[in-house]
User: Fold these one by one.
Assistant:
Number 1:
Amino acid sequence: MRNPTARPPAIAVADGDDHSYRVIARAATGWAVLRVTGLKDARAVLQDDAVWMICAGADDGLGMGLLVRAQKDRPGLTRVLLVPPADGALLVRWVNQARPFGVLAKPLDDERVHELLSELQRDEAADPRSVASASTGPERDWEQTFDAIRMPIAIVGAGFSLLRINRAGAELRGEDRAHIAGRRCHSVLFGRAEPCNGCPVGSLGDSTRHAHAEISSEKTTFRVHAHRADSGFAVCCYVDLAEEKRRLTRAVEAEKLSALGQLAAGIAHQINNPVANILAFAELLKAGPPLDADQTNMLASIEASALRCKRIIASMLQLWGRDAQKKPLRLTECVHEAISLFRTEVESRPQLALQVEVPPALPSVLGNAGQLQQVFLHLLQNAMQAIPDEGTISVSAGVADAGRVFVRVADTGGGIEPEHLPHIFKPTFTTRPPGVGTGFGLAIAQAIIHEHGGVIDVETRAGRGTAMTVLLPIHDDV
């Protein structure tokens, strides 16, 4: 995969959209993320052996120029194109110019960026040398380029017959591409015997080169952009409007959570100094004239409360700090530390059983021990809150698959209602009574795990309980 260098591998981001840079910087755990803002930066990127990937905005002149130049000067660089909403003609033109190895739709969201980075690192085709040598001609080049686009794209000929389709298009209805050529687009993509009402392909002609319309399928609605090529066929792009809305929502929530973190860290710093003064004056009072029993108890209570505030502030700064240091660590120790803290809470609920099956030597991960402990502790507390009376909380861990380790927290509570499941990671969403939950716990946990290059999977059945599984990439350099 990446060639070892003296410096960390780097991703260069050339896009005028600040949001794109922030999302990639959050998602690219373990990478140096460079911002390209001018020609000087662009030239430096092409000469820097530590740069492994370029992410460039299709609507950014500097970014597109950098991608095109990289094809000639450094063909081994992984090139990712960031595309805004566009019709088929623009998308085809951008892709033909950049010949990217991956395409991301804007606005970016953390989940999709993580997904693409993981795919490029796992797949042998992500090795720049493999990708650069895989193409055997224009035919193969077209397939590789358009298969990298997660948006369904099809070339439609006369009579609505499908001439070609990319992988995302074939996967819409689980079709085998080998059996698609020549079939009608409305049959393959929408399961209809007749052309779709309002289909933009039917509107194309000598005087109409571009058309678009919204077409509904069984599960969602697509905005279909059609562009008439010089040879007469139509290039069609299918934008899933529901997914586009979800992506935009995730992007907005990620920005809100990031802003909230900066605010929390700032408040914590401001509170830290007065709390330190309280502790200092408490020490002076203890060193002064003797106090009676009531005064001594009150002073002890003041000191204990101030120390508790200090611990909370330290946790907030560690949780939200921009420079939270990551280093190779033994995940077993993080899990057991969280369980140790949690046992004190379980003792107040004797009807709860805690079962732990964690191997003594889990693989190592690259991370921040305090942040990961926060995640595991919150998942345990969440499980306890889900069990109103008697029940069992189970903690297990192990190797999930090649390159990942898992930690699973399961409960025998009431499960999560289907209508609530899509919202559980949203900031401020909670089903708990007032004063019991703020709704930030799972949102913060997910943000931390994403920063560590991992994911949180949720399995739940109403009335049967919930299992939350943290998956993290294994770090071998320990």
Number 2:
Amino acid sequence: MEEAFHATHERIFAVREPGQYLECLLWKARATAVLEKPELRARELPERLLEPETTADAYFKDIGLGPVPRYDGASLPAGTRIEGPAVIREPTTTVVVYPGSAAVVTRLGNYLLELTQDGAGSVAAAAAAAEALAR
């Protein structure tokens, strides 16, 4: 290792001092490990859909400000389809379901978002959702 240092030092700095004291101030290492993949398990989900926790005011470009249903994500069973506009609260995030779009709860407790072609819902779908919320 000492000879490799002197050869590299001479190549870079054009100086070789073989009798000098060497001190290693920085060591770097790289390790690679192959780990087993964790097993994916379905989380404990309730069997029936609970009603929205409450409503919350939300603003959407096409329908403006208005109350939307707010769901507790932990209370949604697998297969639940939430039509937008809606809000789903999780411990680490909030899922906003836009008007004309939908969120489906997977068996693993994730959300599959179904977006409309324009990504925000059609004006007609948004208007219908606004009317439904007003009732």
Number 3:
Amino acid sequence: MKKILFTVLGLAAAVTMSAQKYESQRPAENERLFKSEAIELKINEITQKLANPRLAWMFANCFPNTLDTTVHYRKQDGKDDTFVYTGDIHAMWLRDSGAQVWPYVRYVGEDPELRKMIAGVIRRQFKCICIDPFANAFNVEPVGAANKTDWPAANPYVFERKWEIDSHCYPIRLAYEYWKTSGDESVFGDIWIEAVTKILATLKEQQRKDGNGPYKFMRRTERQFDTLSNNGLEVPHISGPKAEELLTKLFPGSSVANPIDFLATGTAEQLGHIIDACENDFDNIDAMAVIFGSPGLFPNWEPYRVLDEKMKTCKKL
């Protein structure tokens, strides 16, 4: 009976798909937040080359979505300023905004308006870092929109103050790629110098070789998903010379106190160091669970290759 039901459902799905009309899901032209002639030309070029109508439809809707729905461009004090919503949240994440506009950077030489918009993103990102180098998400104005249980209280420009090394890496990556593509040095002004100075100071502080540093963050929750918690399980604390040695193999800002957090920019090689240390150096650890996510800065298969190799030899994994 299950097989028959599955077959019938599969047939119904196939019939529905074949009858589907691929209509644009983009906002009406007068409702789009930003328009780039270069991007529109690229959409036409790619969709004409795609033989699969569903793929063409997906590309035509997805590729311009950031421009259509999240980019808020303006002039502020005579300079380009761009605030990028993260999805349906009216706040700008430094990492996310850098990733959202990244696909368009290669076209800035073909569209002066697109170049101005991305220059505005870069200026806004470094303005935000100057406001608070530990914050990861910001409001467009100092309206104080934030989780009211966060501690300590943040600047009213700050939407969320969870420090992540990604929040510094992505703006630098975007600015460098923009400069390489456009040759425009105008984004490297006083704000840039101030922001980079604060980034370097923060990265050095968060290595925590000379104490814990000034950064603290807590959030009141019923179950502490937003603050590290054992949720009733006995999660052993990791410390001592072996923990310090492991920390030197990870990116600044990582933590080995347990859970071991080596950030979204951590590499497969670093994952291998962590597994080896838990396996061989920490006797109070009986088992490991690995949660690994990648922002796409390196091939996704690498950490899974490491996991496959380690699972064949490790007793704790």
Number 4:
Amino acid sequence: MLEEEIMLGAKVPSQWREKYEALARDAGISLTEVVRDALAQYIGAHNKSSALVSPLELLQSQITTLREQVEELMLYKNQMRELSIRLSVLEQGITKIQTELVPSGTISVSDAVLIDPDEEYFEDEPDEILTDFLPNAKGL
């Protein structure tokens, strides 16, 4: 059985009407439905089929989203902390290995000069490399 509807009238500031009209336009509903929903929310008889979302519901939804994002950021923070600890342990291990395997005063890997194959002094022929340093091989 449908409830009987009555007509109510009220005077409101013109700014309210502009806001209600904007809400109605944004939600795609009539001005009457906006006012009806506002009154229903005020007395706690909010219609679940309403096209409007109450400011409280909107805030609750935003708070839920923010909580989820904070939880995700906390997870990332903990993962970063764990990775930082692992990196520190690896760096310490590398330093220990370097000091044990490379005696002091010798050339380390970081001191080594790498030969650039594009440079002119680099020769790619193995037979030239083997024979160039022999004194009698120049005539071969």
